[in-house]
Amino acid sequence: MNMLKEFKDFAVKGNVLDLAVGLIIGAEFGKIVNSMVQDVIMPPIGLLIGGIDFKNLFLTLKDGVSQVGPYATLAEAQKAGAVTVNIGIFVTTLITFTIIAFAVFMIVRAFNKLKIAEAKT
Questions:
Q1: Residue 77 burial (CB < 10 Å; 0-12/13-18/19+)?
Q2: I want to staple 67 with a disulfide (CB 3.0 to 4.6 A). Which of 63, 74, 80, 111 is the partner?
Q3: pLDDT of residue 94
Q4: What is the CATH number of the domain that holds 34?
Q5: Taking Cα atoms as reference points, which of 55, 92, 94, 61 lies closest to residue 75?
Q6: Could you give the number of structural domains in the chain?
Q7: What is the pLDDT, as a whole number, of residue 14?
Q8: Which structural domain range is residue 44 located in?
């Protein structure tokens, strides 16, 4: 029964609501950053390094059953059943993660400064 009471106290104190709001806002923030990276940052980078479309930057490890490479696009390779290493998608995801991690770091840093300032007063 003690654990049930602890859970009730946790849920009633607003922690669950705060967590839900944080998750929803975080998910939407992730979508915004993902779009920024894919639609704003990566196209100019691809253009600067020779017109590479990062969505279609991949290595074919094994040709597909229905069609033999080379494949013009990742979608074409996947449709043929080829085994690929999707370098462009990985690089894009890595950049997205870095931006989100930096944003979270800045939020935590600001929160910690507020806590320190609050403790001094």
A1: buried
A2: 80
A3: 94
A4: 1.10.1200.120
A5: 55
A6: 1
A7: 65
A8: 2-52+86-120
